[in-house]
Specification:
- A hairpin with a 2-residue loop joins strand 5 and strand 6.
- A 6-stranded antiparallel beta sheet has the order 1-2-3-4-5-6, with no helix packed on it.
- Helices cover 0% and strands 60% of the residues.
- The C terminus is likely disordered.
- By secondary structure, it is mostly beta strands.
Length: 180
């Protein structure tokens, strides 16, 4: 297994003027890693590879209207993505069928392990389980808070949220399983 990752986290806040305060922040991570599978022991270049990316950010503006009222406008966003594929070809989808008409030889139970590595007479053993998954979320929110008297607080709020997601998952065609 191998792993290469980095992450960040940052926040900034400050007063913009009388009664205005701004807060901004972001956090995220990117991880590139490999999964060890014993069948690929001698062909590690084609062992499964993953890339996970997570990013989020927000901004919030608060406005004090009076000693008994304030309003807040906030925006937040989040995105996450996972990619999985062959260690050597990863994002090069057209390269998954490199072996021509015979396709990807896949696992041969008589061979046991891919002992020949890249020099295998049957060709490279491409990890043919491709996955692409992404989800995004955006939210905008406005609040107005008023203290009516010593015992009553009234809050008005408006919120808009949008989310989308897509998944591309499945086996890449090999040999006789060619997609028409």
């Amino acid at each position: 297994n191998s792993n290469g990752s980095w992450l960040w986290n940052g926040k900034v806040s400050g007063r913009l003027g009388s009664g205005l305060e701004l807060r901004v922040g972001s956090t995220g991570s990117v991880q590139n890693w490999r999964e060890y599978r014993n069948v690929y022991r001698f062909d590690l270049a084609h062992a499964p590879r993953y890339r996970d990316t997570n990013v989020s950010g927000y901004a919030q503006l608060s406005h004090t209207i009076s000693p008994r009222a304030f309003q807040t406008l906030a925006v937040g966003a989040f995105s996450t993505e996972r990619r999985r594929g062959d260690g050597a070809y990863f994002d090069e989808i057209d390269s998954y069928g490199v072996n021509g008409p015979q396709g990807n030889p896949g696992f041969n139970p008589l061979e046991g392990l891919f002992v020949y590595g890249d020099g295998d007479p049957e060709g490279a053993h491409v990890y043919n389980n491709l996955l692409r998954r992404q989800s995004r979320y955006v939210e905008v929110k406005w609040d107005l808070t008023r203290q009516m008297d010593d015992h009553h607080l009234v809050m008005d709020s408006l919120r808009l949220a949008l989310q989308d997601q897509y998944d591309i998952a499945g086996m890449v065609a090999t040999g006789a399983e060619a997609v028409e």
